[in-house]
Amino acid sequence: MDDGALNTQTRAECSPALRKPGEFRVYRRRWFILCVLCLLNCSNSVIWLTFAPVADRTAEDLQVSLDQVNWLTLVYMVVAIPLSCITTWMLDTLGLRLTMILGSWLNMTGSVMRVVGVLSGIPERAMFPVVMAGQTLSALSQPLVIFSPTKLVALWFPEHQRATANMIASMSNPLGLLFANVLSPLIVSETSSLFTLLLIYAIPAIVVCFLATVGIRESVPPTPPSAGAETSSSEPFVQGIKLLMKNKAYVILLLGFSSTIGIFTCFSTLLEQILCVKGYPNDFAGMCGALFIVFGVIGAALLGYFVDKTKMFTEAIKISMCLTSLACTAFAVVSQMREQKAAVGVVCALFGLFGFSIYPVAMELSVECSYPVGEATSAGLIFISGQLLSIIYSKTLQALTKKLADSPTSMCAADGDANFSWKVPVLVMAGLCCVASCCFVIFFHTEYRRLRAEADAAADFSQTESEQTLRRETDDSMDT
């Protein structure tokens, strides 16, 4: 039943206290909240990757080194790890509305501060610190945004729409990365102005902040959409952490999927460096990155819809992880070949198609296997672990590179400082992906606790209804 069915009912009649057990409703406003979260997620990821595609121009305009420019991107990862625990507590304790509004204001304030940092009246020595301060504020909002999808779909969506809604909210983040990769070089080349670039990116952040502040008026709907929503976040935060660490299925999912996140981060971060030494230009590396994201979103949409219809969470992830390992292994081989653009492009597309599709389903599975622990807590630990492994894997793979004395076909930096052999690192990356997949496929087994609780609630309701009907029929016969 949707909002229109409630027009003739009072608010009191919809209150949980007066609602009949087993009676659930959904509301159209859930799509508005989902849209706001998607816009916020996309805006935040665009702000995150603003400077990476135009690092040279950014260093020139802000009068800093390329290493300092890189910190404008790295600050997101540095800030996210310690803040993640606070975010999970906020979502499970203070609620979705406050968390999303706070995230939108931090994102908007940071984007505006970046614009202020490149105004002509700002002293040159103050430009980079102001821009970095704005970038840090936006980085503070990332965990608030990243952790919200599982909480939103659990509280507002019925069980047959949860995986799809989670996919839509989660995939808005890589779409933002795609927009930044495409639009940043285009805007800077057309306008030759860093101010224009930052102003354009600030406008969506301002709009979504207004929509969140004015449009989101409650954390939970008047009545829950499912039995699982009734007991969402029933475990306290600290107790939830303890339960998760004792949950064998969750720990295996945590380790396996976090490793996959770390591998994806390494791939996205190091792709240009891996390909340039084999003679592939930067624009081709950018195209491969775009294929990785675009096909990943397509794969996530297809798998999310499939899982919503079948509830085959475990089977879907196990198959996807195996195919991801094959694609990663293929990339390790073809990336070391010269003049194989078609093969490299196809492999990058397949890597995204199979790999990205895991994310939204894994987030839903983390809730299913850890229920009734709060959704933000179960998803948040996976995010934190993924960020830690991203740093470890990135540093490890870079340490395994070997400086090349001569590379005549290299398209890397002209001074040759970027000419490294990536043969061993990409093979190690493929090995890590295969190990994570094998361990997950062999050892992961779980029951779907949330779905079982909802089925039990529905069965209890049916039994109660039958008993009441039988009692009424008995009373009627006695009266007769």
Protein model, in words:
The chain is built from 19 helices and two strands. By secondary structure, it is mostly helical. The chain folds into two domains: 25-218, MFS general substrate transporter like domains (Growth Hormone, Chain: A), CATH 1.20.1250.20; 231-457, MFS general substrate transporter like domains (Growth Hormone, Chain: A), CATH 1.20.1250. The chain has a two-stranded antiparallel ribbon with strand order 1-2. The longest helix has 31 residues, at 449-479. The two termini are 37 Å apart. Residues 1-22 have low confidence and may be disordered.
Give the CATH class of the largest domain.
Mainly Alpha
Q: Helix segment count?
A: 19
The largest sheet is: 2 strands, antiparallel
Tell me the name of the CATH homologous superfamily of the largest domain.
Answer: MFS general substrate transporter like domains
Mean residue pLDDT: 81
- Oligomeric composition of the shown chains: single chain
Alpha-beta classification: mainly alpha
CATH architecture descriptor of the largest domain: Up-down Bundle
Radius of gyration: 25 Å
The shape, in one word, is globular
Q: How much of the polypeptide forms β-strand, as a percent range?
A: under 5%
Trace the largest sheet across and list its strands. 1-2
Number of domains: 2
Distance N to C terminus? 37 Å
CATH level 3 topology of the largest domain: Growth Hormone, Chain: A
Number of strands: 2
Helical residue percent?
over 70%
- How would you spell out the order of helices and strands? HHHHHHHHHHHHHHHHHEEHH
Show unreliable segments. 1-22
